Amino acid sequence: MSERRDVLDMLVQGKITADEAERLLLALDKTQTREAQPEGAKPKPKFMRVLVDDGKNKVNAKVPLQLLRAGVKLASVIPPLAQAHLDEALREKGVTINLAGLKPENLEEVVEGLSDMTVDVDDDKAKVRVFCE
Question: pTM value?
Fold first, then answer.
């Protein structure tokens, strides 16, 4: 933690630029992540990636899984009556989800399941790939 603080202090003092600070903080994060994992363990995914190529258009969306975590926490503070209305509206659109069943304490299990997920769709006109990294 003090190393992160040192980088921020150097930034405030003008010894390094914001870009340099960002690179240093990212390098620290990678080092700490490797040190925190047991030998041979798979790294926890940080992003869900969606790639689409239909020949004309290309989409490369990188969605932070932290956004998913924040969304679940937010859903837990929605009043039950509003959750029921949201669930019904989602069902009408073909999305069957129970917001009351989404609990922050269960989220890591969901994220763990996503880490093993890969969806590849190939047809004559488009290629779609969804995976976590």
Answer: 0.47
